[in-house]
Specification:
The complex is a heterodimer of chains A (about 160) and B (about 425). Chain A is of the alpha/beta class and about 160 residues long. Chain A is about 35% helix and about 20% strand. Chain A has a single domain (about 1-160), classed as Alpha-Beta Barrel (Aconitase, domain 4). Chain A has helices spanning about 15-20, 30-35, 45-50, 70-75, 90-100, 105-110, 145-150, 155-160; strands spanning about 1-10, 55, 80-85, 100-105, 115-120, 125-130, 135. In chain A, α7 (about 145-150) crosses α8. The longest helix of chain A is centred in the middle third of the chain and has 10 residues, at about 90-100. Chain A is globular and about 40 Å long. In chain B, strands 4-3-2-5-6 form a 5-stranded parallel β-sheet, with helices on one face. A 5-stranded parallel β-sheet of chain B has the order 16-15-14-17-18. Chain B has a 4-stranded parallel β-sheet with strand order 10-9-8-11, with helices on one face. Chain B is globular, with a radius of gyration of 20 Å. Chain B starts with a helix and ends in a 10-residue tail after the last helix. The chains are: A alpha/beta (about 160), B alpha/beta (about 425). Chains A and B meet through α5 and α8 of A and α2, α3 and α5 of B.
Chain lengths: ~160, ~425
């Protein structure tokens, strides 16, 4: 599967409090919650983001709180992929568990700039920067994680196994 | 194969003789935890996926602590959703207003976490129970839904960093100063995906409350878990609380560590994390004059009885500065009652502070102490991210209860010696 979109670029340590501030965590409706995505770091994000767009950041993306609302609001805004040099571990699990594609790739995270047009091939892990004419190779997921992604999330994969 | 303490607990719960760093395993969990923010999401996901039963109604804890007592109608609905689920499944450890406390202070106090156990919680500070020699870690709501339904969770076995604590800490230095110092040293992703194992002669010097505070903030260095060896203090803490058999694990002497850090406790000074990352640490001596409008003493990091006693010993016979709103939040009903019985509550109120019922409230900008534009708070909580306690231009300085209490009196951030 290949996705393509424009890039929103952020720096190190983007925490889950800025991805979705706690003051909105009493909102149950994912669509309403999603209108506040990235509000405290990029007030215009929800106005500018288009389906398929890609979020790129450097180190430790998604640090802080375990709130699953963070990957959820990105998915609800139809972000097709998050690329970072590294992810905080709970965000990493949550993204996989809810089916938000994420890729660890330091070269891509460093080279890609805001507004670049980027495509990602999830089968090969190849990230293509169409604006700059560069490609970067992301590490493949271990088979166990691939099986969760294929099933469409953790709970569906457990159901498939007959749990 | 030699294993760390964490790896031994994971191996045991996965039914394996040994595990190695990087290995993916599925392990049985002894307890799952969710709160009024992460619980409803987990419940909805579990029901949506068609899981109709919980794996064990005695091994699920639901604690209404974040926006409780209900701060608004939406929060009330979220607690109602948890309450309905708890009744439907006859959940034994459902803690509502009147019984609840801040989850990570409450569960150890109730004896729900014990040495050698494996605990997952849909809250990042679930790593707190490593203080008891347990493996505990934060997960998201979907992981928690899977845990509540199947009693299992998947993990990548972590590698480890070893922190050798030596020496004797100076008066007023507590677990908070130790962990802030360590985070300042290794950074907010310095332990990413790894275990932080705390060992050395200095461990015996640390109270259980110090150890809870240290493990609580392991996540602020990106760690999967923090863990202390089990000693007499641990056993004495659980003696009247845990009434089941426990297993004590020890790291193998030749276990591998990615790095070993020596921390001389006697060299530490009261330490503060400046905005907007926990790694931005300075000692109080290096700070300069930073005026504050609010002081918060409480949270899952520092709302235990020892924290209350330290704060009260500084506030006794003094008054907080005129423009500093001082909010004291004992973490549980038991701590609250102890504050009353020991006269600490009276000390706080006479000093011009307020004493609140247990809640996570201000720590995550929920309620009970939100900051306005440009305001600054010293706080014994665990995160000082942008907008964490209120307006995005407000600032949080993380500190120990001693520093927070002293700063409330002075009106600017300072060490306890400065107000004695």
């Amino acid at each position: 599967m290949v996705v393509k979109g424009s890039v929103f670029k952020y720096g190190d340590n983007v925490d889950t409090d800025v991805i979705i501030p706690a003051r909105y965590l009493n909102i149950a409706d994912p669509a309403e919650l999603a209108t506040h995505a990235m509000e405290d770091i990029d007030a215009d994000f929800v106005k500018k983001v288009h389906p398929g767009d890609i979020v790129v950041a450097t180190r430790n993306f998604g640090c802080g709180s375990s709130r699953e609302h963070a990957p959820l609001v990105l998915r609800e805004n139809k972000v097709s992929c998050v690329i970072a040099s590294s992810f905080a571990r709970i965000f990493y699990r949550n993204a996989i568990n809810i089916g938000l594609p994420i890729l660890e790739c330091e070269a891509a995270a460093n080279a890609i700039q805001a507004g670049d047009e980027v495509s990602v091939d999830f089968d090969t892990g190849v990230i293509t920067n169409e604006t700059r004419g560069e490609t970067y190779q992301a590490a493949a997921f271990p088979p166990f994680i691939q099986s969760i992604i294929r099933a469409g999330g953790l709970l569906k994969s457990l159901k498939e196994r007959g749990e | 194969m030699a294993m760390t303490m964490t790896q031994k607990i994971l191996a045991k719960h996965a039914g394996l003789d040994s595990v190695a760093a990087g290995q993916l395993i599925e392990a049985n969990v002894d307890l799952t935890l969710a709160n009024d923010i992460t619980g409803p999401v987990a419940i909805r996901e579990m029901e949506k996926a068609g899981f109709e039963h919980v794996f064990d109604r005695t091994k699920i804890a639901l604690v209404m602590d974040h926006f409780a007592p209900n701060k608004d109608i939406k929060s009330a609905q979220q607690c109602l959703e948890c309450r309905t689920f708890a009744r439907k499944h006859d959940i034994v450890n459902f803690f509502d207003v009147g019984e609840m406390g801040i989850e990570h202070a409450l569960l150890p106090e109730k004896g729900l976490t014990a040495p050698g156990e494996l605990i997952i919680g849909a809250d990042s500070h679930t790593c707190t129970y490593g203080a008891l020699g347990a493996f505990s870690t934060g997960v998201g709501s979907t992981d928690l839904a899977a845990g509540m339904a199947t009693g299992k969770a998947w993990f990548k076995v972590p590698s480890a960093l070893k922190f050798v604590l030596t020496g004797k800490k100076a008066p007023w230095i507590s677990g908070k100063d130790i962990i802030l110092h360590i985070i300042g040293m290794i950074g907010v992703d310095g332990a990413l995906y790894k275990s932080m194992e705390f060992v050395g002669d200095g461990v015996a010097e640390l109270s259980m409350d110090d150890r809870f505070t240290i493990c609580n903030m392991a996540i602020e260095a990106g760690a999967k878990n923090g863990i202390f060896p089990v000693d007499d203090k641990t056993l004495s803490y659980i003696k009247d609380r845990v009434h089941r058999e426990i297993t004590v694990f020890e790291a193998d002497p030749d276990a591998e560590y990615e790095a070993i850090y020596e921390i001389d406790l006697s060299a530490l000074r009261p330490t503060v994390s400046c905005p907007h990352l926990p790694e931005n640490t300075k000692t109080v001596d290096e700070l300069g004059r930073i005026e504050i409008q609010q002081a918060v003493i409480g949270s899952c990091t520092n709302g235990r009885i020892e924290d209350m006693r330290i704060a009260a010993s500084i506030l006794k016979g003094k008054h907080v500065a005129k423009d500093v709103r001082t909010i004291v939040i004992p973490a549980t009903q038991e701590v609250y009652l102890q504050c009353i019985e020991e006269g600490l509550a009276k000390t706080f109120i006479q000093a011009g502070a307020i004493v609140s019922t247990p809640t996570c409230g201000p720590c995550l900008g929920g309620h009970m102490g939100i900051l306005a534009q440009g305001e600054r708070s010293v706080s014994t909580t665990n995160r000082n991210f942008v907008g964490r306690m209120g307006h995005i231009t407000s600032e949080i300085y993380l500190a120990s209860p001693a520093v927070a209490a002293a700063s409330a009196v002075a009106g600017y951030i300072c060490g306890p010696e400065d107000v004695q």
